[in-house]
Amino acid sequence: MDLANKKIFLTGGAGFIGSHIAESLVAQGAQVTVYDNFSSGLMENLQAVETKVRLIRGDICDYKKLEESMRGHELVSHQAAQLEILKCVDDPVWDLQVNTGGTINVLRAAKNTGIRKAVIASSACVYGQTTAAQETEDHATAPNWAYGVSKLAAEHYSRIFQTDYGLPCVNLRYAIIYGPREWYGRVLTIFLKRMIEKKPLVIFGDGEQRRDFTFVSDVVRMQDLCLQSDQANGRIYNVSTGVGTTINALAQLISKAAGGLELIHENVAEGQYSKIMPERVRLPAELKMMTLNPARAKAELGWVPTVDLPAGLQKQIEWLKDNSGRWHTVHI
Question: Is-contact 265 205, C-beta < 8 A?
């Protein structure tokens, strides 16, 4: 399906990933409506397309406004979410209301307004604590955080809307997505800011936690493919590199890019704040391993990640040099 002239409704389009999606869709000639409550999204993220999209300030939890705003569109890309793990730990009901309740609202509105397909941002957090070298989409799901539970529930609701109401849905389980405009709070961004400030990089514990770092442009390509391809309908895909990078290796990469920085290991208990970085907390029930297998996306859609971690980090570092003022407060 060619996306030129397609009317696409994009929730969370002023956020980190959503704004990159908006740029891609506009470049393909789509007519894009960005729907965002700006709780974490920024107008700065939309500078390149601000005059080329229709912008609606709205919340996915406001069903009436959501449905009214969605009328007249053909496709939905649903990126709006509550992302902060400590917030879901402190208030799992609110997390459920936004991530599950908000997604149900998107699905209801899509069904009631004749949307042809919805592509939905899910998360690797649906898998929870595992020891598998790579998670496949058929792997058991046992979320360790309320955030993963709310995302997994949203996946099941989308399946029901496809099966019972004929609304084609695609769920994308994002790994750790990074790149320009990323929100400040995760380990990679903490390292990068300390690099800019020429401070030592602080690693919690032994640093052998593994993460699958996937560059944002690869995510955008996958989202576009899922909007375009009927073969994706009803499917769940890992959006990932399949490469597990330890936090130690990540710190070494960033130290090398900076010409050499001291690496410090700090024994912070899970759920406790760092003494060296008092604004930073180590997540409770921290994931020891999170590496996803992207083979299904390659086999069915021909998608493969094209940006490796050293190249992606360099792109993000170049962006950060011109935008360091945006990273003031840690979002936890």
Answer: yes
Active site residue 147: yes
Name the catalytic one among 35, 63, 127, 147. 147
CB-based contacts of 267, cutoff 8 Å, min separation 6: 204, 205
**pLDDT given at position 83:** 82
Angstrom distance (rounded) from CA 270 to CA 204: 9
Round to whole Å and give the CA distance between 238 and 308: 17
Closest alpha carbon to 31 in 48, 44, 46, 49: 49
φ/ψ region of 295 (left if φ > 0, alpha if ψ in -120 to 50, else beta) reads alpha
Mean pLDDT, consecutive 10-residue segments, the chain of 332 residues?
A: 95 98 98 96 96 98 98 98 83 94 98 98 94 88 94 98 98 98 93 94 96 98 98 98 97 94 94 90 90 97 98 96 81 54
- The per-residue pLDDT for 70 is 98
Domain hosting residue 184, numbered range: 179-212+243-293+307-326
Say yes or no: 127 and 102 in one domain: yes
Residues 189, 155, single domain; the answer is: no
Claim to verify: residue 159 and residue 19 sit in the same structural domain: yes
**Distance, CA of 230 to CA of 75 (rounded, Å):** 12
